[in-house]
Amino acid sequence: MKKISIRTAFHWTCFIGLSVFVAITFYTVQRDYLEMARMENISGKIIIFAATGFFDVPITSSALRKCSGSLKDSCAITSHWEHYPKARAVVFHSRDIDQNSLLTFPFVRRSEIPYVMMASESPYYAQMAEYKNYFNWTMTYRKDSDVFGPYGGLVKNNQTATVNYTSIWESKTKDVLWLVSNNIHVNNRRKEVVDKLKQLGMNIDLYGQVYNNEPADCPRYGAMEECEEKLQKPYKFTIAFENSNCKDYVTEKFWNKAGRYQMVPIVMERKIYRDLGVRV
Ligand SMILES: *[C@@H]1O[C@H](CO)[C@@H](O)[C@H](O)[C@H]1NC(C)=O
Ligand SMILES: *[C@@H]1O[C@H](CO)[C@@H](O)[C@H](O)[C@H]1NC(C)=O
Ligand SMILES: *[C@@H]1O[C@H](CO)[C@@H](O)[C@H](O)[C@H]1NC(C)=O
Ligand SMILES: *[C@@H]1O[C@H](CO)[C@@H](O)[C@H](O)[C@H]1NC(C)=O
After folding, report:
1. Which residue intervals define the domain Fucosyltransferase C-terminal in the entry (predicted)?
2. Among residues 98, 131, 209, 239, which is most buried (max CB within 10 A)?
């Protein structure tokens, strides 16, 4: 028999210990959410039943917190089975289901209410296996979805905005930023395009795991707002290439980052943005 070194054994013990810890924590968190969902006073409200989480995070009524008062007060989102018989719609997030989990969905289908497929990613990454005649509605970033759920949008301001372009211009000391996630092998080959632009002389600062250059004090997750601002605001332009060139697929890269830090976004295909009413 092969000998197992103490170190290997120790590693495995740690690994198993850690896995158990993670599993217990996850279970506890899930249970607390379910308990909260059960306790929520949903009487008189329009109930949307969340059959899955959103990337494993439970979907609850707190998802409505940015909605207008009347909507917030008249709707509830819950994932507690007790509420299923009263639901007016059932929502599934595409990345949290597969055909197996649909087969094991523990309740009898209520065909009088719509089953809704929610997809936040583009078709390349939404993991939409073939669900033949299963879903009634779609809820995605696409304008032609039954329920349009974009990442962002333009809203007309009631007051005339006063913008001091001189001071914005003076604060811009750097040229182009590309802050990329670790997702390199994407279908539209955005990295190759950026590398080529840089090679052709565009002054792009490249940050991210792909380039072995993660901003030290500004990690991808859990970064402080101030550090993001300090890192990004000095740039005139930001590369806002999505991981897929798809109709209406415009994410927070464009809506949040470019807008918040007053950078001009550089995008791959103008047509997609024109369709969203953005001036290009
Ligand atoms: C639940 O909400 C309804 C309607 O808003 C209210 O009449 C009722 O008293 C509430 N029940 C509890 C237990 O808070
Ligand atoms: C939803 O689709 C299923 C399967 O095609 C169908 O049986 C059901 O009547 C539909 N329900 C609604 C509300 O559209
Ligand atoms: C703009 O003004 C209209 C009419 O006064 C009001 O109904 C609307 O809520 C306002 N919108 C914003 C974003 O403040
Ligand atoms: C705009 O910003 C510049 C530079 O910061 C400043 O000199 C100027 O007074 C500002 N103009 C207004 C109208 O505030």
Report:
1. 169-274
2. 239
